Amino acid sequence: MTEHHARKQDTASEDTASRHTVPQDTVPPDPALPDTGAQDADSSPTSLPYRDRWSYAWLGLAALLGIFSTGRWTAPLAVWLTSVFLIRFFRTQRPVRAWLAAAPAIALSFYVGWRGLIPFGGDGAFLGMAVAAGFIGGLPFLADRVLHHRLGALARTLVFPSLVTALEFLGTLGGDLTGSWGATAYTQAANVGLLQLASVTGLWGITFLVSWFPTVVNHLWERDFDIRRARVPVAAFAGVLAVVLLGGQLRLALPDETAPSVRAALVAEPALSGPDGFWPGGDVARRYYTGSELTEVEWQATQARMDAIHERLFAASEREAAAGARMIFWAEANAQVRSRDEAEFLARAEAFAARHDVHLGVSLLVLPDLATDRLQNKVVFVTPTAGVAGEYHKSIPVPGFEATLLDRGDGRPAVWDTPYGRVAVVICYDLDFPRLIREVGRAGADILVGPSNDWQAIAPLHLEMARFRAVEQGVTLLRPATGGTSAAIGPYGRTLAALDFRSEGDRSVGVVIPTRRTPTAYTLLGDVAGWISVGASLLFLALGFRAMRRARRIRRKTGVLTAGGAPAEVAAGS
Predict the structure, then answer these.
(1) Contact, 394 vs 409, CB < 8 A?
(2) pLDDT tens-digit series, residues 97-155
(3) How far is Cα 130 from Cα 128, in angstroms, rounded to an integer?
(4) 336 Cβ contact partners less than 8 Å away, ≥ 6 residues apart
């Protein structure tokens, strides 16, 4: 009976070990590391990889949730959970093996989530982009796997969010290819309380917070969800999250109700493509954009369609002026004119503004006789008293087709003073670059106008991205858009008015908007939070690799063995 009982105890112990941590690579503490709780109850013997029979199940679940964490079908909760299971998978596998296995899963999520949303490069280029996203996206998980157990209890939970935030931030500095597309923060746009953090840190505070959550959950998971053994990271994360959410709600509860206001209107007529577009046929458009010279008959047919669009634009503007609008803005490139006819068209716009006492944002696509001479995508700002006050050319054309055709602007948002506050203008894709829109806040603008042209697949996501610019700079955003949703968004990110392009009836919407900006810390600080994440990443990498070198020296001197009896250097492996 005694021998049988002993065998049962041994079997039970083995089962328990298979479900929890099995020591394989115990790392001595480094007295030179900063005091981050490494010696308290949060810090248990560090042993990797953790043994988990469900390891690849967690990878599969992460791949499935990943489809709903980015791109077309984003679900905010899925974003918080996906990395929980990916981190668990990495920590239960050898580092390089985990990275090579996770890269295809991340790439698959990217491919499914973003397919049809990226307009340039073709299928082959998009597949390559997905593969690159898989391997690059796995790097923060790989670094967390290699380094987290070599740091103190709190610091180990900060490695992953620092790296994710740093990579996303540095990605926005790499030219005009992607801007801030794909930033984690955009997935949380529906949470208006959390969105207020953007007024301090921009995108980067939200990205960090969302990425911190999975490391804290894994810290708990590795301690059997015993909060007492993980109290420092859990308390830190919970405290920061509570401050952010409560602060956001407080900011929302204290708007300035005495701010002056004005009625504005957004006008968005079908114009650029489709049966209501200005080209008389796809073949004519194709020939023009590829540099061919159109016949006079083709130009006459095109002009007739452009004239019809002009009439609809002025009719909608007149209707909104009669309803009390003092500022009217048209969607991107909503009025098309030949270069030779631009002056005549603007004279008509000046007469309209003077007659109706309105400020008019005329969005033009100016067509030279040959496309090789470069088109102009611009907004001409017309006042009721001075006529044309100036113009703004799109600074950052969409890479690919548009970038090859357009005459670029100078990279500085245009700003004009009006009786209703300072008005800044950018165009569509410009709004995806926080570094460009920061100039709007620095110029003291009260209202930001961003005429846009979307296609249906990206329309919801593109609008949510633009919402962040209003909160970051504390301005009211007016975004008339063809192909998507025209919207007025207040300084706190709330939608003041919206018009779906697919809706029947009038193609315009009027709205009363505040005309005084709400000061924000982000306007002053800029991307300090992004740079802090870069600095923190470098610090954690340095401390982690220093601890690795120290551990190797100690093993060589002492011949430390793992629980399995193999030399520690061999058990640690790759």
Answers:
(1) yes
(2) 999 999 999 999 999 999 888 766 677 888 998 999 999 999 999 999 999 888 888 99
(3) 5
(4) 271, 278, 306, 309, 364, 365, 366, 367
